[in-house]
Amino acid sequence: MKDSIPEIGLQQIDAILKYLSVFEKQDYQFGQWVEQEGQFPYFSFSPEVNQFIGTLRKQNMIIPFDWRSWSAEAKRYQSDPDALEAVDLLTLRKLLTAHVRADRFVEGHLARVFESGHITAILRRLKQIRDEMT
Question: Which domain holds residue 57?
Fold first, then answer.
């Protein structure tokens, strides 16, 4: 599987990490639920979150792999924040991929992982890895 995953370098990681300071702001609003008559409720992300998701794709952070069969592992990292402290770059990419893709099937999934602080924790670990690369 590793052979089919594009490598990423410092420039790609830096492009992603620029969102860390935004998401760490106290009381930052990742978006809001929209309810309109005749439609299912949906979560409307803030402009920065939409840009972040686009940046993840553009910088090859979203990777091809069977994220559905890996969902139990993703849930483990969500429920145990300390487990993130030792993960590698590939695991972070898998987590971000799983969360972005799951949101297409479960409305609000990505909103919940943002609001819980899990995405910010992933970015903090990514920063640690980036700092070790230099």
Answer: 2-133
